[in-house]
Write a structure and sequence with these properties.
Elements: E1 26-27, H1 36-42, H2 44-64, H3 70-91, H4 95-100, H5 104-127, H6 134-151, H7 163-178, H8 184-211, H9 213-232, H10 236-262, E2 267-268
Antiparallel strand pairs: 1-2
Helix pairs in contact: 1-10, 2-8, 2-9, 3-8, 5-8, 6-7, 7-8, 8-9, 9-10
Length: 285
């Protein structure tokens, strides 16, 4: 009788298997089952970031067209930042602050240092790209914002994720666009606003998502409506296309994922590579 061993001579060829070979066949051992509502909820991070880019570009367009003053944008950003700062501590009752041992005075110092340096270097930012054509600036900004969306941390454990690279690309795009604004004050306010919407806003969203999921869903929907309303004032066609994109990401893509999961057919059996279950750390001493 044939035995699945290599240390004994048997009257069978090396590639011989008997009828029991497929008895150990297993399918979709490590396959994950998704629920549509859970996938839609997780897609909110992508929707949020797309809306952040949309709001940033719309705001820049209004400033470039002279329809939004830098003082008005700075005041609105300051008020929203204060409200977000209070909400950030209120959501978890200050538990995160106690764990990090970071004081409000330290936060205030960091804010003042950033604002002072950005304001001091705003004339340099304004003239940084004077030798580069406007078309090149727009192309670079579009590529940087696209890279920001690609490398952003949406919660997936993947090698392509890099929060630092994503933020740097967004700030680089904001500097490029700010250099085409009329005055250095516009450049300062634009870069400050970019830091708020690309660095601080995602932090608040992650905490809302972890602590208050219902509030997170409401904020996501409201933020998407604001982005669509702002884009509609510039281009109705663009607003329709952007709304279609958001619906496809939040509704259609999760549905396709659920449907494709039903067709998944990973097989496992005795042909798989052997896995060592024993702890071999003692041999490394």
């Amino acid at each position: 009788r044939w035995q699945k061993v290599l240390y004994e001579r048997q009257p069978f060829p090396d590639n011989y298997v008997d009828q029991r070979f497929l008895e150990e066949l297993r399918k979709n051992v490590h396959a994950r089952r998704y629920r549509y509502g859970a996938v839609v909820f997780q897609s909110g991070a992508v929707v949020q970031q797309l809306c952040s880019v949309c709001v940033f570009v719309v705001t820049w367009w209004y400033m470039d067209a002279g329809m939004l003053s830098p003082q008005g944008l700075f005041g609105a950003a300051l008020v929203s930042s204060l409200l977000g700062y209070i909400l950030f501590d209120t959501v978890d009752g200050g538990a995160g602050r106690r764990e990090s041992r970071r004081t409000r005075w330290a936060d205030l110092k960091s804010t003042l240092v950033f604002a002072a340096f950005t304001y001091g270097f705003s004339p340099v930012l304004k003239t940084l790209t004077e030798s580069i054509s406007t078309d090149t600036i727009y192309a670079m900004s579009a590529l940087m914002l696209l890279g920001h969306l690609i490398f952003f941390d949406y919660g997936a454990n993947a090698a392509i994720v890099s929060s630092t690279l994503s933020l740097n690309m967004a700030i680089f795009a904001s500097v490029c666009l700010a250099s085409r604004l009329p005055r250095s004050l516009h450049a300062f306010v634009m870069v400050t606003f970019a830091m708020q919407i690309f660095a601080l806003w995602p932090m608040l969203q992650k905490k809302l998502k972890a602590q208050t999921p219902r509030c997170y869903v409401g904020v996501t929907v409201l933020f998407a409506l604001v982005a669509l309303a702002g884009l509609a004032t510039i281009s109705s066609v663009g607003a329709v296309l952007f709304a279609s994109l958001l619906l496809a990401i939040s509704c259609l893509c999760p549905y396709c994922l659920i449907r494709l999961q039903l067709l998944k057919d990973n097989i496992h059996g005795p042909w798989d590579e052997a896995e060592i279950k024993e702890d071999l750390s003692r041999f490394l001493m």
